[in-house]
Every structure is written in structure tokens, then in C-alpha cells.
Amino acid sequence: MGEQKPDVLQGTLDLMVLKTLESMGPLHGYGIARRIEQVSGMTLSMNQGTIYPALLRLEQRGWIKGEWGTSESNRRARFYTLSRIGHRKIAEETENWMRIAGTMARFLEETN
Amino acid sequence: MDWMRTLASRVKALFNRRVRDAELDEELRAHIDLAAEENQRKGMSAADARTAALRAFGGVTQTRERYRVQRGLPPIEEILRDARIALRQLRRSPGFALTAILTLALGIGAVTAMFSVVNTVLLKPFAFPDQGRLVVMREVEAQEHDGRIEVPDNYRHIMRLKNTAKTLEDVAIFQTRGLSVSPSGDRPNIVGAQQVSPNFFHVLGVQPALGRDFLPSEAKPGADHEMILSYQGWQSLLQGDPKAIGETVRVSGAAYTVVGVLADGVRFPQIALAPKIAFQEAARNVEIYVPLAPTDYDLSADMGGFNYKSIARLKPGVTLAQANAELEGLQQAYTLSAHLPLHLGMALTPLAKDVTANISGALWMLFAAVGSVLLIACVNLANLQLARAANAERETAVRAALGASGIRLFRFRLTESLVLAIMGGATGAALAVAGVRLLVAIAPKTIPRLDEVHVSLPVLCFAAATSIAAALVFGTLPALRSFRVSPQSALQTNSTRVANTREGRRTRGLLVAGQVACTLTLLVVTTLVLRSFSHLLRQDRGFDTSHVTVAQVDLFSPQYGDSESPSTFKANKLAFADRVLTSLRQLPGVKSASITSAAPLTGETWVDDLQRPDHPVPPAEEIPINVRWIDQDYLRTMQIPLVAGRNITAGDRANPMVALISEQTAREGFTGENPVGKEIGDIVPDAPMGVRIVGVVADARVNGLRDDAAMVYIPYWAFTPWTISFLVRSPQPSEALIPEMRRVIWQTDSKVAIPSIKTLDDQVSESVSSERFQAIVLTSFGAVALLLAGLGVYGVLAYSVSLRRQEFGIRIALGSGKGALMRLVLRQAAVPVVLGTGAGLLMTLLVLRWVRSLLYQTPVADPVAIGGSVALLLAAAAVAAIVPARGAASVDPMRALRMD
User: Which tens digits make up the pLDDT trace of B864-895?
Assistant: First the structure.
């Protein structure tokens, strides 16, 4: 069923989801997946299904909350919202990511 | 923090998984729908839009699986799944499941309930610091006939030892009695009290929680009106008033000041004055402690006043044997140097041992009975499980062939056993709670610390351990077979043939035999105890208890003085008794009313030595007698016949120094002589002259149902003691008579206490309460064991018949008769039952030697008990075997042959 696409780093996807919810407000799983695809300009191609384990992980940590609602086309769907903890975590995670990205960039430059 | 929230969420996800799965499916479907809608809006056809959406999603099934693994706790889910399957399988064989759970519950429930009692009464230590060094001290008198007997302590002797012994750190001396206590002084209650030397609590190593300890100066007459309350006494007398210190409580009419209150956990155990002497007071919990002020007599007498109990604390490092040797030597040296006409010694008993000395034998017997019930239960379960595992062998083989690992199969069988054990254990725990309540309710009040018995945490742990151990034992054995199963062989053969191998049958037969043996032993012991009990109740006791009501009265209040008071006080006691007797005789319907100094069946009291002025013997050879103070109507009220001479008459009042003796006294003290007209010396307190025997009465078991006692009856006109009992014979119902008697007594003096008032029949029944308790408990265990043994025989036989249906079908088809088939099955049952009966008889022989001491005048080689038990057991086994045997005979050959 469907060809395998490269996996996205776990932490990366989590942060993308958080950022998406921060900028867009409550959104269902499909919406989040589409938004990530659009923003990343299709350079990042992933299975949309990958989003669900990430959503579960964030929900289990209490960073996001899922509730049933209705989509613009009147379809029942589960909408995710950032929790208070989630809001707090974004800054932290962003900083973490920047540091890793910076380290990585320096590393690649040095060894080039 | 994150991991804690994650864990909590995962644990929560173990529940209502079906709803969660449905929601996940719905969410994923919504995703695909939304994606397909968007694709359609972009102009794709409905089918293409859907395909594209699915492709973009990746694998729906993989996502769902990943999601579910991450959502819950997979290892636990697997165990729960096993448990669910096990439950479903158990529900499919409800007979097996119910039998197993009930067997387990009965075993565990009985063990836990009994263990709770044993734990509190025998195993749980008292709260005294370093109590291994606390010993009970009793003087020993070497007697010509009876050897060394333990007697209560003499104040002077104990004080000498306290001052000279080098092995003892300290010795406290005390006395337990009921004291009449009341806030106002009117209609007092008798409460348990202990008169103690001021160092008593120091010896025990405890301090009052409120207020202070007694002072050495308070052990003197006049300075001794202080009291320390036990926690219970504080609650019941002063309602736990936090300002209790300094309050006044009236004891025997005199004002006592509360100086201290003990903590809740501090309880001093009941200690018998001497092994043979049991007072009714001893059964009361001690509520108040007052200082013991020795009288001049206590301080000077060497030969009398053996009225006390003592407890000593050994010096650190001193052994019991060392202390015993030193005290024995000191006693003997003193006997010689003071020229005492006695041979005194000393016996030390560790406190914990002394407290349980009288009941531990009986309790351990009950515990052994319960243990064998649990054993029988476990054997039953093992047998059921073995049969079941054999049955499941084919299924196991199929699973193994499909790739299940040995560990996996093993775990499944273990889970099934655990499910059974947990259900049985939970039912058992509930039964235990009910059982403890029942035991405490029917147990005699003389068992010490009974009020502290409840199902406690260690007991629950014990129950859990038993149930889990049982589960493991009977679960692992059959489960281990799953490692050995070779799929090919199991699948090739017919499953039932595998299960019914000779080896399996022999194992199950042996288990049944063992169960039968245990049950038979328990049945014989139970029957013997029941016969002993009925013998105790049925034998001739020498007096008639029906239609007699007895009221105990205590005259411990100032108007009646004490043993030191002038003679006017004696006249007060006499006048009180006279007035009450007169009023009682005037009550409607009263046939006769009488007085006695000790209520019947309350144990030995007022024990003295028989002294004959005409025939003096050394004190060690004098025979012990019980003195009772009675009146002319005593024999008529108790219906004790006169054997020789005459009864006491009203005419003796002017010259009351006369006596009746019982036949036993005549036999032992006047061997070969006519006692009538003889004199007994030094028997009435404060009287210079002795009493003249005017009559001999028949022996009666007035002290206790177990033995006759040597009695001397003297009219109360010669001396009226402070504890008296009024006996009333009347055809009136006791419910009407008892309030009347109480009214008469309190009308005469409202300041006396009535510790008990009840019918003599009730008194009889109370005096054998511990025997009855034993009999009831043993009988119920015997019944449970018999039931379990029946279930065991039935279970194994029914299973074996079900496996051999095909064979029976063939036999019937070949013309075998129903009778022959039934005989075949019954013969199969008979082998283990007969073997077990033989083994049980051997086991019984071993056990009976030990049970003998607990029986009353019942020969252990009682053919009725042994024969009856064997018959009962065989009958139960026959009933259990007949059902499957009939099943075998009624096999329909056509259906049986078509099976498999």
C-alpha cells in the first residue's frame, strides 16, 4: 500500500506539528499534514500517516489536546489544540532545534 | 514530568480499548475522506481521488498498529488478553471453575480466619520492651501425693526474693480482681482491676501516656487511693476525658484519684493465679490499676496469704535456668532456716508462654485441622488441574504446531491458574472476614486478647501467599508438560488416549488416596472431640441445674469493711444476706432460695488444707479442700442428696460451728472412719475453734464439670464472705425472675454490685464454652473436608468416565450389562479410597497420641468414633462414585461410537 517515503526525524515532526498548531489554531490531522507539506514546499515528502503517532505522543505528554468537531465540509473529525504546556514547550523545543541545526551546520562546514 | 503523564495516559488506555479503537478508525477515515474531497475539488474522479489519498497517507494498517502499540502497554495487554481467554475457557467449563474456586476459597478462608486468631493470641508479642526477660514467678509446694504443684505467691516470700536474688533486676507483685466501681457510689459495676506494687509498670517497661506512674510511698494503707486507668478504662469510665488526671472515681465506695492513663496499645495479659485456679474475674479486661498496700498479715505470714501473682524482669544476660536455680536454692534455704513445715520451691515461666499455656494445645489442634483442610483443598485442585491439562493437551499441540513457543504456552497455563487463584483468593478473603467475625462471636471469652482479633495485614498477606503458592504449585506442574509436548505425536494420537495413560491415572489415584487419608484423620479427631464434649455435658454432675437462677453479689464497699475491720462489719454482711434470703423466699413461685459463697462452676476458690485436731499430719500431707459458706436450703436448692448424718438446720444458727463434707472429703480425709461427729480445725477465719462434721453429702461437680472436688460446707452464720451468690429454685421463667432478684438485692442495699445474674443452665453452658467452640469449629472443618473428599472422588471418576465413553459404548454394544459396567467404574474408585482409608488409619494412630491430652475421659481407641468415621467417609465416597458410575452405564453406544 503506497511506496515508502523517507522517515522524518521524530523530534522534527513534533516541532512542526506544534508550530503549525501555534500559527493556525485548532486543526485536524489531515489539515496539519497538508500544512506541513505546503510550508516545507514539498521538499519534505512524508507519509501523511506518520503524523498520527506523533500526535499521540504529544497528546500523551499533555502538550496538545484532541477533541471531536466538524470540518468546513461538515465531516466529523478530531481537532487538535495546543495546551498551556504545549505553548511553553515551543520556545524550548525551537531553541533545542536551532542548537542542533547550528551544530550540524558547523560540523558540515568544518569537515567539508 | 512528560514521562509520568505518558505513563498515566498509557495505563488509562488499557481500559475501554474498543471505544478507543473505534475512535482511531473514525479519525483515520476522516483523514482519507478529507483528502479525497480535496483531490476531487482539484478535478479528479471519485475513485482516483480516493486512491491518491490512500497513497499519500502511506499504510493505514501499519499506522493503526504503530498507534495502538504506542497507545497502551503491550506486555500488560498480552497478559490481560491471556486472562480474558482463560476466563472465557473457565466459563465454558463452569463445573470445573466453580469446584476449583470454591475449593480454594474454603481452604484459604478457613486458614486465614484461623490464622488471624492464632496470630493475635499466640504469635503477636505484647508491646512490652525487651519482653523476653519478663517471667511469671510462682511458688512451688512439694506435696506428698501430688508431687510439686505451683501455688500462688506469698507476699513475704516474694519480697525476700526481690531483695536477695542476684539474677533478677526487679520483681512486681500484684493481684487481679473485680472491684465495684461507680461515679456516684450507687449501683456500681464490677470492673476488672489489678492491685499492683508501685514498680509494676517499671518492671514491664511502660510509662503512663498521661499523668504519672505510682510512687513507692503509695503502697501503704491510707496512702493508696490513687488509680491508673487502662486505655479501655479511661474510655469506659471517663469517656476518654483529656482532663482525666485528678478526677475522682469511687472504688468500693471510697474516693480514688486518677493519677495516670495508659496508652492504647498497653495491655497486661491475663495470668492465672496458679495453673489449677481460674477465677471468673480473670476473664475481664483490666480497666483500673490501684496500688497494692500489703496488710500486716501479708508482711508477717509465712504459711498463709498465698494470694498473689508476681512478674520479674531478669537481669540482662541471665538465662531462665540460671534464675530458676538461684531462686529454687534461696527458697529451699529459707524453708530450712525459718523452720517452715513446707517444702517450697520456685517456678519461672516466660510471660508469653504462661499466657497461652492453657489454650495453645487446643488452638494448635484447630490450626492443624485447618492446615489439613487446605492441604486437601490443594490436592483437589491439583487433581482437577492435572485432568484438565491432559484434556487440553491436544489444544496445546495445535498451538505448538501453529508456532506458539513453550514459554508462551507455559505462561498461558500459568495465567489460567492465577486467574483461578485470584478469584478463589478474593472469595477466600471475603470468607475470612466473615469467618473471623464468626469465630470471635462463638469463641469463649476466656481466650486472652480475643477482642484484639481482626483480619490484619499480615494475615491478608498470608492468605495471598497461600493462594498464589497454591496457584503456582497446581498450575506449573501441568503447565510444565507443555514444554515436552511434541506436536506430531500429540496430533497423531487421539487426545483422550494420551490423557488417560496409566501414569496419569496412577497420579490421580494417589492424590485421591492422600486426600481420603487426611479426611479420615480429621474425621476421627472431630468425632473424638465431639464425644468428649457430649460426655462432659451428659455425665452425672451430682446436682440439678434446671430451674435454678444464680445471682453473684460483691460486698466490697465501706459498710461491709474488710478482713481487718472490727466485728460490727461482719454483722452487716450477715444481716444483708439474711434480708435478701428472706425477700427472695417471699417472691411468688419460689420453691427454695439459698446462699453459697461461690457460684457453681466458676472454678476452685477458697482452697484450704484439711486439718484434723484428732489426727494431726505434717502440712505437706494435708489434703486440699474447697470451703463453701451455705445455709440450710443449699442441698434442697441444688438437689444434692445427703448420704449420712443430718443437714444443717435453722437450729444451728445459735451455735454455727458445724459442717457438711462431701464423700470425696470423707474418702480422702477420713479413710475407713465415720466422719460424722469429727472435728475440722482452723478453717473459719478469726475463729479459735474448729467445726464439727454433722453430715456427709454426695459428690457434686460444683466447681467444674470435669472433676468432683473435696468440699467442706459451713453455714454462713459462722462467717459471711465478701463474695456471695444467691441461688433460687423456681418454676418461673428466668426472664421474669432475674429482674425480680435484682430488685430484691438492690432494695436491700443499692450500693452492692451484682457481677452476674443468670440461670444455672447458662452457667453450665458458659463453663464449657471453650470445649463447645472447639467442637463447633472442628465439626465444620470435618464437614468441609468430607465435602472436599467427596468432590475429589467425584471429579476424578467423572473425568475418567467421560474419557472412556467410547470404550463403554463398545462394551455395551458387545453386550455388557449395566451392572457390570457400574461395577467396573466403582472398582476403579474403590482402589484409591480403600488405600487412602488404610493410610488414614495409620496416620490417625500417630495423631491420636497427641490428641489424647485434649480429650475428657474419652478413650482414643474408641471403636465407635473410628468405625463411624470410616463408615461416614466410605458412604460419602460411595455417593460420589455412584453418580459417574451411573453415567457410565447409561452411555448411548451409537453416540459414543460416532464421537471423534
Answer: 889 999 999 999 999 888 888 888 888 887 77
Q: Which long-range contacts (CB under 8 A, 24 or more apart) does B807-815 make?
A: B808/B888, B808/B889, B808/B891, B808/B896, B809/B891, B809/B892, B809/B893, B809/B894, B809/B895, B809/B896, B809/B897, B810/B893, B810/B896, B810/B897, B812/B891, B812/B893, B812/B896, B813/B893, B813/B897
Q: Which chain B residues touch A53 with a CB distance below 8 Å?
A: 63, 66-67, 70
Distance between CA B376 and CA B370 in Å, rounded? 10
By Cβ distance, the residue of A2, A48, A60 closest to B9 is A60
Average pLDDT of the residues in A79-97: 90
Q: Which residue has the higher pLDDT, B139 or B116?
A: B139
Q: How far is A93 from chain B (nearest CA, A)?
A: 14
Number of helices and strands in chain B (H, E):
29, 23
- What does the alpha-carbon distance between residue B691 and residue B689 come to, in Å, rounded to a whole number? 7
The residue that leads in pLDDT, B355 or B530, is B530
* Distance separating alpha carbons of residues B65 and A13, to the nearest angstrom: 19
Distances (CA, A) of B833 to B514, B800, B863: 9, 16, 20
> What residues in A contact B6, CB-CB < 8 Å?
57, 60-61
What whole-number percentage of chain B has pLDDT above 90? 31
Q: How far is B15 from chain A (nearest CA, A)?
A: 15
Whether the pLDDT of residue A1 is over 60: the answer is no
Quote the CA–CA distance of B634 and B598 in Å, as a whole number.
12
pLDDT in tens, B265-298: 787 777 877 765 544 344 567 889 999 999 888 8
pLDDT reported for residue A6: 43
Of B27, B55, B71, the CB nearest to A78: B27
- Closest-CA residue of B relative to A1 is B59
Q: Hey, what's the cell of B479?
A: 503447565
Give the nearest partner residue to A48 out of B27, B30, B58, using CB atoms. B58
Burial of A84 (0-12, 13-18, 19+ CB in 10 A): exposed
- Subunit contact B58:A62, Cβ cutoff 8 A: no
Q: Given the DSSP bridges, would you call strands B753-759 and B548-554 parallel, antiparallel or unpaired?
A: antiparallel
The ipTM (two decimal places) reads 0.89
| B628 — pLDDT class (breaks 50, 70, 90) | very high
Residue A62's closest chain B neighbor by CA? B5
User: What is the pairing mode between strands B691-697 and B658-662?
Assistant: parallel
Residue of B nearest to A28 (CA): B31
* pLDDT-wise least confident of B636-645, B711-720, B805-814: B805-814
